Amino acid sequence: MVTFLPTPIGNLQDITLRTLEALRECEVLLCEDTRVSKKLISLLVERGLLPLKDYQYFAFHTHNQTQFLSQISLEFFSQNIGFLSDAGMPCISDPGVELVRYLQTHNLPYEVLGGISAVTLVVAFSGIVEKEFCFLGFPPHKLKERTQYLANALKNPYPTIFYESPHRLLESLELMAQVDKNRQVFLAKELTKKYQQTFQGTLAQIQESLTQHSSKDSALLKGEWVIVVSGAPLDTNENVLTQEMLLSLEIPPKIKAKILAKLKGGNASEYYQLLIK
């Protein structure tokens, strides 16, 4: 049995009781990074939240998952196994999806426990998302691909959520501002951690503010960033062809009749007879 375990994204107190219970029962831990998971387990033991236990640790990440699954026996999954990404929910911009598919393909049991995620936290923080939203994870690294990616994302009528690294943050904000500098944006860094900060305004305002302040404080951009951009505004000036507009056009009655049939349904010849009377 494999249990996918949510882990704190910063504050250790966000660990859930169900996750602690599952860890007590696990014999094996599959980890995005065994060093990170060992440190988490050590802190939990140190705080008295977990008993000292000798787990078997295996690395399972995007670079080795295919090889791992091709070499492991199905018998391996008869153990109590916990899967941990470095922080937050597995499978959300983190490894785990391939393991879920493998377990589904082989009809092996698994469980996913609920827990903290930067996506849901920033949705509540932002004041931008009311209902629907689109989560896109990290944009591409290469500038050309990222430029097109962000331009397409800003066409979305729903608020869009990104993750971004501190090294590309200002550049990505500039690329989005080139598309629509007046779009509302909410940024959060280091959620649940000691140096958590949030920023709100238009893309132009936030880009300018962070650019100015980061030149004086190099630490400002450090950390993990989540970005919420409001959806593309509806085009209230969109041209819509009405029946009155169509009738006023100086085009042959036969063409008008065909268009009316498309707009309203019915037979084009009947519309034609009405037009020529």
Order of helices and strands: EHEHEHEHEHEHEHEEHEHHH
What structural category characterises the helix and strand content? alpha/beta
Strand count, sense and barrel status of the largest sheet are:
5 strands, parallel
State the shape. Answer: extended
Give helix % range.
40-55%
Mean pLDDT: 92
Number of helical stretches of at least 4 residues: 11
Low-confidence stretches: none
- Radius of gyration equals 27 Å
Describe the protein.
- The structure is a single chain.
- This protein has 277 residues and is of the alpha/beta class.
- It is 40% helix and 16% strand.
- The strands form 2 sheets. Strands 3-2-4-1-5 form a 5-stranded parallel beta sheet, covered by helices on one side. A 5-stranded mixed beta sheet has the order 6-7-10-8-9.
- Helix 2 links the parallel strand 2 and strand 3.
- Helix 6 crosses helix 7, helix 7 runs antiparallel to helix 8 and helix 10 packs across helix 11.
- The longest helix is centred in the C-terminal third of the chain and has 14 residues.
- The chain is extended, with a radius of gyration of 27 Å.
- It starts with a strand and ends with a helix.
